[in-house]
Design goal:
The complex is a heterodimer of chains A (about 325) and B (about 290). Chain A has about 325 residues and is an alpha+beta fold. Helix content of chain A is about 25%, strand content about 35%. Chain A folds into two domains: about 230 residues, P-loop containing nucleotide triphosphate hydrolases (Rossmann fold); about 80 residues, Nucleic acid-binding proteins (OB fold (Dihydrolipoamide Acetyltransferase, E2P), Beta Barrel). Chain A: This is Sulfate ABC transporter.
Chain lengths: ~325, ~290
């Protein structure tokens, strides 16, 4: 089911959270709303869900205007950053909640509900936790239960608000790969909010970069990374360096750099401030002559220039972009 | 090395000895205060009540005026506590789930009955609903009696016990936030289902604790009720008022007998409070872990 967002604006008091947002999300797509905190991405997600009302503009699901529909009639699955599991219910009852709340005519029998719940728990690989309470689970487990609970009512759209934000780095990586695979299997139109560009790049089909209540750029991960529409997008999607030249400066990513131990024409002399092996790559922090802003260069760990390199030595660098 | 460890251990021991002495003194002082101010009066009440044996004790309790006072007290409690439960729940819900102008003023005003003397609260109702009061003429025209009757007693009790439930629930509900309710709505629950299946189980123990405190206060309320009741024996006398009348008539045994009835009710409520408090603190520590 597609989502069409038309001219949506929202403010809280004097703060303009969203300013005339237009966005189309295609059926079956996994879209990331990416931006710094306070950029309006969570507000937009909550407006799609119906948890907030926009000041102006409207939301349509598959062409049907749902702006006037109540939250419970929109049939969206929603996953909260802090899980929002019902603390006094077991995992089983949490997942069964949506089915049990259906009007009597539509409500399946307890046997069908039980089968469905176990099927969902098996899908999130936590069937063995059915009788536990949320407080007895780890963060990653809680979030998978929250996802199972949201999927139980067979929503047409899945919305996730910083779903991995409260988890530690390792669990976060596992879970987002798992989510990407899950999305491939069930192919549900999904929107997730994140402030982590790596997460957005890894999981999403398309990324919507937001800043200060407006959309800066919409595009596939490779597209927004390679062809950023603004300086903001460039900075937000990855680490960046600034090299001052006569009459201006150029921006380049840490890996877009050529290094040499010998002075070469067009290369800039620099002093090595720090050397950090980070696994497959090594990061070298450099102070280029004539500028105070430090530059970070990332090269493969067996790069020729790194052999025997020590702090305080001289290196010569050239951004690849200016070739 | 070992001597340093020994020295450290010795000084730690010395500190602990000092602590032990201070701790014992403090505990002894606490028990002493408790005994003189709480246990001794309890003992006096019971011993005075039973001075002439169980026969007179039960006579005092089974006397028609005493029974009607007990009935009136239980009736007033039975009306005012449920009303305050509903009010407290509604107020706590508004304050914790919605943003609206004047919110902090409302929270402050909920506490007003704690800071106003109960006698003044009673007088306010006399000034409003009494024969010479603001609505006095209208009420007498329509033959409605509020002051010196049950409605006045209930109103005064409600006023005095109004903050208990709301005070207990507001911080609890604010701490729990609105996300579980939002999740319930997103899963298709209607307002009533959301309240019954999500909100109420989460605040259950806080609610019980507030109701227990409210009941205790309502049972024992003297000042405000005294002003509005008119002390009509057998009609508008509550238990605390009945005790006072008996005492003023130098009928000490009967006064203390009725007082011990109030005492027993209070002890039952204290046990209920202890039980709900224990459950509540468990709940709060769970919430803190989130």
């Amino acid at each position: 089911m597609s989502i069409e967002i038309r001219n949506v604006s929202k403010h809280f008091g004097a703060f303009q959270a969203l300013n005339d947002i237009n966005l189309d999300i295609h059926s079956g797509e996994l879209v990331a709303l990416l931006g710094p905190s306070g950029c309006g991405k969570t507000t937009l997600l909550r407006i799609i869900a119906g948890l907030e009302t926009p000041d102006s503009g409207n939301i349509a699901f598959h062409g049907e205007d749902v702006s006037g529909h109540d939250v419970r009639d929109r049939n969206v699955g929603f996953v909260f950053q802090h899980y929002a599991l019902f603390r006094h219910m077991t995992v089983f009852d949490n997942v069964a909640f949506g089915l049990r709340m259906k009007p009597r005519r539509e409500r399946p029998s307890e046997q069908i509900i039980a089968d469905k719940v176990h099927e969902l728990l098996a899908m999130v690989q936590l069937d063995w936790l059915a009788d536990r309470y949320p407080e007895q689970l780890s963060g990653g487990q809680r979030q998978r239960i929250a996802l199972a609970r949201a999927l139980a009512v067979e929503p047409k759209i899945l919305l996730l608000d910083e779903p991995f934000g409260a988890l530690d780095a390792k669990v976060r990586k596992e879970l987002r790969r798992w989510l990407a695979r899950l999305h491939e299997e069930i192919n549900l139109t999904s929107v997730f909010v994140t402030h982590d560009q790596e997460e957005a790049m890894e999981v999403a089909d398309r990324i919507v970069v937001m800043n200060k209540g407006v959309i800066e750029q919409i595009g596939a991960p490779g597209e927004v990374y390679e062809h950023p529409a603004s300086d903001f997008v460039y900075h937000f999607l990855g680490d960046s360096n600034r090299l001052h030249l006569e009459g201006g400066h150029i921006l380049f990513r840490p890996h877009e750099v050529l290094l040499s131990r010998e002075a070469v024409a067009e290369y800039h002399g620099a002093e090595v401030r720090d050397i950090r092996p980070l696994g497959a790559i090594t990061r070298v922090t450099l102070k280029v002559d004539g500028q105070n802003e430090l530059i970070e260069a990332e090269v493969v760990k067996d790069h020729d220039t790194l052999v025997g390199l020590e702090r305080g030595e001289r290196l010569f660098i050239k951004p690849k972009a200016s070739a | 090395m070992s001597s340093i460890t020994l020295n450290a251990a010795a000084s730690a021991n010395a500190a602990r000895r000092g602590n032990v002495l201070g701790r014992r003194l403090l505990i002894a002082a606490a028990w002493l205060v408790f005994a003189v101010f709480l246990l001794l009066p309890l003992y006096v009440v019971l011993s005075e009540a039973l001075k002439l044996g169980f026969g007179t004790f039960f006579d005092a309790l089974l006397e028609p005026d005493a029974i009607s006072a007990l009935e009136l007290t239980l009736l007033a409690v039975g009306i005012s506590v449920p009303l305050n439960l509903v009010f407290g729940l509604a107020a706590a819900w508004c304050v914790s789930k919605y943003e609206f102008p004047g919110k902090s003023l409302l929270v402050t005003l909920i506490d007003l009955p704690f800071s106003v003397s109960p006698v003044i609260a009673g007088l306010i109702y006399v000034l409003l609903f009494g024969a010479q009061g603001l609505f006095g003429d209208w009420l007498s025209e329509h033959d409605i009696q509020i002051i010196f009757a049950l409605p006045g007693i209930v109103l005064a009790t409600i006023f005095v016990t109004l903050p208990f439930v709301a005070r207990e629930l507001i911080p609890l509900m604010q701490e729990q936030g609105t996300q579980e309710e939002e999740a319930a709505r997103l899963l298709g629950a209607n307002g009533w289902q959301m309240f019954w299946h999500v909100t109420l189980p989460n605040i259950k123990w806080g609610l019980i604790y507030g109701v227990v405190l409210c009941t205790a206060r309502a049972l024992g309320e003297f000042g405000a009720v005294s002003v509005v009741s008119g002390h009509i024996r057998g009609f508008t006398n509550t238990l605390p008022l009945h005790v006072e009348i008996l005492y003023n008539e130098y009928n000490h045994v009967a006064a203390f007998s009725v007082a011990s009835l109030l005492l027993v009710l209070a002890l039952i409520i204290l046990l209920l409070k202890q039980w709900s408090e224990a459950r509540l603190s468990r709940l709060k520590s769970d919430a803190a872990e989130e």
